[in-house]
Request: fold
Amino acid sequence: MKTFKRLLLSFSAFLVAFFGEIAVDIACGGEVDPYDYYVSYFHNNVQGDEYMPFAFTQMAYLYSEDDVESEAAINSREWSRYLEVKEQDVVKIMYGLDSATSAKLAIFNGRISTLPDSLQKNSFLTGLSKHKKALQYFLFAKQCEPFANVDFDPWDPMPRDSAGMSILAEKAVHLTKDTRDQFLKLRYAYQAERMFHFAGKHEDSKSVYETFIKKHKSASAVKGWALALYAGSTRRLGNPEESAFLFSKVFASNPERRVQAYRNYFYNSTPVNAALKYAQTDQEKANIWAINGFGNPEPDVESLINVYRYDPKSELNGALLVRAVNKLEQALIEESDVARISYNYYFAEDDRYGDSVKAVYRKNLNSIRAFALKLSEERKYPQPELGTLTAAYLSWMENKDSLALTYLSRLKPDKLSQRLQDQYRITELLLKAKNIKKGAAFNEHELLPALRWLDNKRFAENEVHVNQERFYGADPGSNRFSKTTRNFYQQILAPAYLTLGDTASAALAMAKGDQQLEVTGTNSLFKQFSYQTIVFWQRHLGPESMEHLLTYKNGVKGNGMRAFLATGLKQLNDDDFYELYGTTYLRTHQYDKAVAMFAKVSPGYKYYTPENWYAEDANSKLFSTPFIQTINDYPKRYEPAKTAVTKKTFASEMLRLQQLIVSDKKHAANYYYKMANAVYQTGYFGNSWYLISYSWSSYDNSMAPKYNYDADYKIARTAKTWYMKARNLSADPDFKARCTFMLAKCEQKEITSNTGFNLLYYWDKEDVKYQDFLSANYNNPYFKELKSRYSKTPFYQIAVGECSYLRDFIGKSTEVLSSGNKFKFR
Reply:
């Protein structure tokens, strides 16, 4: 009986299949894009670019690893001004040479004629040749570089030459003292501090900074670089709190070192109050609060309030405000089930944020809106309109449309900066679309001007990616309008059409959301569309919708919404389109029409074939024929390649059998039986699932039927009908036994669906769904019928020998004693 209870879960021993079967084709998509994992309509650069590396993303430490300023450009600019030479020439010599050429410059004596021809006209080298002291520093700096820029390999670390660096540091100290030129004096001191620091002599490194650099009267960026070294030595000498404060100063003063300073601030693991005790000015306090705000992925109104309190004019306020809005978006704007941002979330819980967590975010929304209005009303911040616009957007998020419109009415769009103006138009569009989101009828034409504007915006930003195969994630922050447009079409417009029963228009909206350029070449359906759009088309569309889409694909006249949405369809590859069209007819068993659609597909078209991921490439393809009966669903029975059935040949054979049922009624039972076997094998549990489904996942059987073809893919309903017809038309007991056995298997698929039992969590024996599942299986009427009517047939004996489920069912007297939801077996 233990065996029976184990195998009762599935005729095919599903759980064994889940853990042990060849991985056939688990539906898959790309990795989660850390810049595109939640629905957002509020652009994270609306306030400016100064602090973009710290924009919100919970899936990456930083939004960008790149600083907004280039250290190479800043240093080259200072040298170009000092020697009155071309900045690009400095960049080339200091940062753009190969190692061989750079090595030659290490012995440059000032004679231009000794240089390679490609360098003789370089103004920076010419300037150095005329300025002997600058050349002397240049050569000394090149001596230091190999010591400071040692590549670190964690598996085979090279020891630093501490002695060599100490010698260079001492030499740099003497040169600092002997040099009157303040430009060079600062740089010699920096080299001395740097060499001592990397040699591990942190007291000496700090002493150089305090003696020669701290009070140096210069606005050079080198002072900030030196302060960063000083902060690092301070940490090494046992004062992480002061070190954190010093890194906050570098964060504020040197945008080219801001990311590094941010990392080192948090490396100190210092509480905000510990760093604040070293701050002497309000601006320093604001910077510390800002860094802590940037490093906090959770709701954080405190940092926002304190930065504004200490430095209301700083752009930090806008950066933190927008970051706070993006956090709220992640938690409060729900993805549509038809267009989840990422494949990974198709199998995640629908509610990734529980009610209690959402309540916290809604409370924060009110606090952030109050702050935004304060920022707007007090007008201390350079862009007070950002506060008003933020309040309007947050009100839209909270479903307070009239309040949102009130805030928008306070703004004059033509007086706003370009980014604020763009965000204004996006917010206005969202408000106009509110009826759409509620699933009510809406005025499509009212939306068209804004949608055309959005299209132009995204086409313009994607022109720079024309030669790239993939657009999303190509460059962080470069496709904001593409995401906004995609989200509107796929998260708002497509679900609305689907709610109204217009699946074809929903498919148009999904496709339109993926359109990156106004005009593109002919593309495969699967290259043109995103994962979520492919999933939508492959799962939601039926023949009627495909008929409408064919009309749209061939061209829609006029300036209406359908014509606008259909602009991207012309580029779709005909083969993929008609292959999908034919598949929808396979699902609805209109085999004559399926044959007609597959006839439009090119003769050389490669129909999909699943693969064994663990086999060698030469043997990885899995072929099958659906026209067989299998006692057990697992392991799936695959066939040699020469007997393989494609969608096209499947449609033709099924049409032939359909026609024979009418023309050869004498053998109609056999024809129904073959057709029933075929559609059974196209189910999740069969060997030919890929004839009606474009993916197979171990999750499928634990999800409730949802799509029109799930009646066959998950429940085997058509197979059950045809097995019943075959049995009724036959007088052969053995044939009837075969049909009855398969009817029992089909019934089990219904039981799994009706009880809502999740096979992935079967081990909870006390679960009510588990008990219902057991009870229904014990009372499967077709197994009882098989035993009582057909136990003398040859097939029955074969089935008993091969199917341990049936063998356990009939081998012992089984009685179910019901007591509430508890069952006892004996």
About this structure: The first strand starts at residue 816 and ends at 819. The longest helix spans residues 355-378. The chain is about 55% helix and 0% strand.
